[in-house]
Amino acid sequence: MIIKFGLIGGGVMGEALLSRLIARKIYQRSEVLVSEPQTSRQGFLEDEYGVNVTADNRLVFTPTTEVVFLAIKPQVFSAIAQELADVIDTVSKPLVISILAGVTLNQLEAAFPQLPVIRAMPNTPATVGAGITAICPGAYTNANHHETAKKLFSAVGEVVEISENLMDAVTGLSGSGPAYVALAIEALADGGVAAGLPRTIANQLALQTVFGTAKLLNETKIHPAELKDRVTSPGGTTIAGIAQLERAGFRSALIEAVKAATARSQELGK
Ligand SMILES: NC(=O)C1=CN([C@@H]2O[C@H](COP(=O)(O)OP(=O)(O)OC[C@H]3O[C@@H](n4cnc5c(N)ncnc54)[C@H](OP(=O)(O)O)[C@@H]3O)[C@@H](O)[C@H]2O)C=CC1
Ligand SMILES: O=C(O)[C@@H]1CCC=N1
């Protein structure tokens, strides 16, 4: 068994990346080892993607491992780092990529001494190849490591490189953002139901409105404020809706949501 890609934590985000790496043939199934404590989850990943699985995190460090990808919760990071302390391969020096919210490059480099480390923040649309990932390389990385990280995350969407002091803000905006948008879609549909629409039609209208608006903004590159003006007829329906959103503090709620999530990401790193 020649392992090139080791994934620690085969949960939501681990699977999202794994599925695309396999589909894109960036790694062969036999070159991937996923470490995951739950037997049922191991069985699922093995059956679904044909990858190797283990419950022992230490096994991902092999002499041939090129990338160790950390997709566990930040709360178990310290315990896992301790568990790995004596198997870290300082000879072959695999690239460690972490997507853990809040966990800093300093913390990662202390846990993986002398190894190249990249901190990244993807988001769940990665599952369908429509994610966006911010990456931030650590002190021991070189151009090849940056290219490797970009190649992996390009398989799940767009990639931007940022400095680390902005990583918590990225987490608060695009990392957590899919949940805010999902909430908005659900609430729009609820509004439709309140106004008398059947649930299935309301869900479809809400989803396609958000999807179509994002596509329109993306393709035309017009400013969101300009699009809002184009929809808003004098004395019409849209301005009545917008006035209510402003009374309810809609913009402020979104701004404060991003700030609160950013602050929580900062806390997780302490
Ligand atoms: N979800 C998201 O939208 C995003 C998440 N992230 C980051 O990604 C990371 C993972 O999040 P997410 O995928 O949502 O979480 P999940 O809980 O879905 O995945 C974490 C996985 O790690 C497993 N795990 C738990 N303990 C260990 C252990 N000791 N050794 C190995 N694996 C273990 C869990 O197993 P079990 O279920 O049995 O506990 C689970 O399968 C987090 O650090 C988060 O900050 C980043 C960007 C977006
Ligand atoms: O909620 C969280 O902590 C993770 C990080 C970004 C999205 N989900």
Automatic annotation (TrEMBL):
Origin: domain of life: Bacteria
TM region(s), chain numbering: none
Reactions catalysed: L-proline + NADP(+) = (S)-1-pyrroline-5-carboxylate + NADPH + 2 H(+); L-proline + NAD(+) = (S)-1-pyrroline-5-carboxylate + NADH + 2 H(+)
A Pfam family: F420_oxidored
GO biological process, one term: L-proline biosynthetic process
Functional summary from the UniProt entry: Catalyzes the reduction of 1-pyrroline-5-carboxylate (PCA) to L-proline.
Family, as annotated: Belongs to the pyrroline-5-carboxylate reductase family.
Name this protein carries in UniProt: Pyrroline-5-carboxylate reductase
